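sry for the spam today, last one i promise. C-alpha coordinates for design, 141 residues
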Protein backbone atom coordinates (compact mmCIF):
# COMPACT_ATOMS: atom_id res chain seq x y z
CA UNK A 1 0.00 0.00 0.00
CA UNK A 2 1.39 3.40 -0.96
CA UNK A 3 2.06 6.17 1.54
CA UNK A 4 -0.73 8.29 -0.02
CA UNK A 5 -3.31 5.59 0.65
CA UNK A 6 -2.02 5.15 4.20
CA UNK A 7 -2.26 8.89 4.84
CA UNK A 8 -5.80 8.95 3.43
CA UNK A 9 -6.90 6.07 5.62
CA UNK A 10 -5.23 7.58 8.70
CA UNK A 11 -6.58 11.09 8.17
CA UNK A 12 -10.00 9.71 7.25
CA UNK A 13 -10.25 7.79 10.51
CA UNK A 14 -9.03 10.70 12.61
CA UNK A 15 -11.37 13.05 10.71
CA UNK A 16 -14.36 10.87 11.57
CA UNK A 17 -13.36 10.79 15.24
CA UNK A 18 -12.81 14.56 15.53
CA UNK A 19 -15.95 15.21 13.49
CA UNK A 20 -18.07 13.40 16.07
CA UNK A 21 -16.47 15.40 18.87
CA UNK A 22 -17.05 18.67 17.00
CA UNK A 23 -20.70 17.77 16.33
CA UNK A 24 -21.32 17.07 20.01
CA UNK A 25 -19.56 20.27 21.12
CA UNK A 26 -21.52 22.23 18.51
CA UNK A 27 -24.75 20.70 19.74
CA UNK A 28 -23.84 21.70 23.30
CA UNK A 29 -23.24 25.32 22.26
CA UNK A 30 -26.33 25.43 20.09
CA UNK A 31 -28.51 24.11 22.90
CA UNK A 32 -27.03 26.62 25.34
CA UNK A 33 -27.69 29.42 22.87
CA UNK A 34 -31.31 28.35 22.56
CA UNK A 35 -32.26 28.40 26.20
CA UNK A 36 -35.74 29.63 25.49
CA UNK A 37 -36.97 29.13 29.03
CA UNK A 38 -34.46 31.73 30.25
CA UNK A 39 -35.85 34.44 27.92
CA UNK A 40 -38.33 36.80 29.49
CA UNK A 41 -39.85 40.05 28.21
CA UNK A 42 -37.25 41.88 30.33
CA UNK A 43 -34.25 40.11 28.78
CA UNK A 44 -31.65 42.58 27.60
CA UNK A 45 -31.10 42.91 23.83
CA UNK A 46 -27.35 42.22 24.24
CA UNK A 47 -28.12 38.91 25.94
CA UNK A 48 -30.51 37.93 23.15
CA UNK A 49 -27.88 38.85 20.54
CA UNK A 50 -25.25 36.79 22.36
CA UNK A 51 -27.65 33.83 22.49
CA UNK A 52 -28.18 34.08 18.71
CA UNK A 53 -24.41 34.20 18.06
CA UNK A 54 -23.76 31.23 20.33
CA UNK A 55 -26.57 29.29 18.69
CA UNK A 56 -25.37 30.13 15.16
CA UNK A 57 -21.79 29.22 16.08
CA UNK A 58 -22.96 25.89 17.45
CA UNK A 59 -24.91 25.18 14.27
CA UNK A 60 -21.85 26.01 12.15
CA UNK A 61 -19.74 23.69 14.30
CA UNK A 62 -22.26 20.92 13.77
CA UNK A 63 -22.22 21.42 9.99
CA UNK A 64 -18.41 21.48 9.99
CA UNK A 65 -18.30 18.32 12.12
CA UNK A 66 -20.73 16.52 9.81
CA UNK A 67 -18.63 17.49 6.78
CA UNK A 68 -15.52 16.27 8.61
CA UNK A 69 -17.21 12.92 9.20
CA UNK A 70 -18.37 12.71 5.58
CA UNK A 71 -15.00 13.63 4.04
CA UNK A 72 -13.21 11.30 6.45
CA UNK A 73 -15.54 8.43 5.64
CA UNK A 74 -15.08 8.98 1.90
CA UNK A 75 -11.30 9.15 2.28
CA UNK A 76 -11.21 6.04 4.43
CA UNK A 77 -13.47 3.97 2.21
CA UNK A 78 -12.14 5.11 -1.18
CA UNK A 79 -8.40 5.35 -0.52
CA UNK A 80 -7.80 2.32 -2.76
CA UNK A 81 -10.09 3.48 -5.59
CA UNK A 82 -8.11 5.29 -8.30
CA UNK A 83 -11.30 6.43 -10.04
CA UNK A 84 -12.36 8.38 -6.94
CA UNK A 85 -9.15 10.42 -6.57
CA UNK A 86 -10.50 13.63 -8.12
CA UNK A 87 -13.49 13.61 -5.76
CA UNK A 88 -11.18 13.04 -2.79
CA UNK A 89 -9.11 16.02 -3.94
CA UNK A 90 -12.28 18.15 -4.01
CA UNK A 91 -13.30 16.91 -0.55
CA UNK A 92 -9.85 17.78 0.76
CA UNK A 93 -9.90 21.29 -0.70
CA UNK A 94 -13.35 21.99 0.77
CA UNK A 95 -12.16 20.57 4.09
CA UNK A 96 -9.15 22.91 4.14
CA UNK A 97 -11.38 25.86 3.16
CA UNK A 98 -13.76 25.14 6.04
CA UNK A 99 -10.83 24.89 8.45
CA UNK A 100 -9.50 28.26 7.29
CA UNK A 101 -13.02 29.71 7.66
CA UNK A 102 -13.04 28.38 11.24
CA UNK A 103 -9.80 30.23 11.95
CA UNK A 104 -11.13 33.45 10.39
CA UNK A 105 -14.40 33.29 12.34
CA UNK A 106 -12.63 32.51 15.61
CA UNK A 107 -11.77 35.77 17.35
CA UNK A 108 -9.97 34.55 20.47
CA UNK A 109 -7.35 31.92 21.16
CA UNK A 110 -8.66 29.38 23.63
CA UNK A 111 -8.14 25.66 24.04
CA UNK A 112 -11.54 25.05 22.42
CA UNK A 113 -10.65 27.16 19.39
CA UNK A 114 -7.37 25.32 18.97
CA UNK A 115 -9.21 22.01 19.18
CA UNK A 116 -11.89 23.09 16.68
CA UNK A 117 -9.62 25.05 14.30
CA UNK A 118 -6.01 23.87 14.38
CA UNK A 119 -6.45 20.12 14.83
CA UNK A 120 -8.89 19.75 11.89
CA UNK A 121 -6.58 21.94 9.78
CA UNK A 122 -3.68 19.57 10.45
CA UNK A 123 -5.91 16.59 9.66
CA UNK A 124 -7.12 18.19 6.43
CA UNK A 125 -3.54 18.94 5.38
CA UNK A 126 -2.63 15.28 5.97
CA UNK A 127 -5.74 14.33 3.96
CA UNK A 128 -4.82 16.48 0.97
CA UNK A 129 -1.17 15.35 1.19
CA UNK A 130 -2.38 11.76 0.95
CA UNK A 131 -4.45 12.64 -2.12
CA UNK A 132 -1.51 14.40 -3.80
CA UNK A 133 0.83 11.49 -3.10
CA UNK A 134 -1.80 9.10 -4.43
CA UNK A 135 -2.13 11.16 -7.63
CA UNK A 136 1.66 11.12 -8.09
CA UNK A 137 1.70 7.37 -7.51
CA UNK A 138 -1.03 6.89 -10.15
CA UNK A 139 0.88 9.05 -12.64
CA UNK A 140 4.10 7.10 -12.08
CA UNK A 141 2.37 3.75 -12.61
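last one done:
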Amino acid sequence: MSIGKKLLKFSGGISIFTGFIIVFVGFYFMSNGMLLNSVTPDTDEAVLRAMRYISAGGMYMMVFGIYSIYAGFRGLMNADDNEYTDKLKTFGMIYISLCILNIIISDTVTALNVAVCAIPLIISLIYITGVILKIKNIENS
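The first helix runs from residue 3 to 33. ok im logging off now
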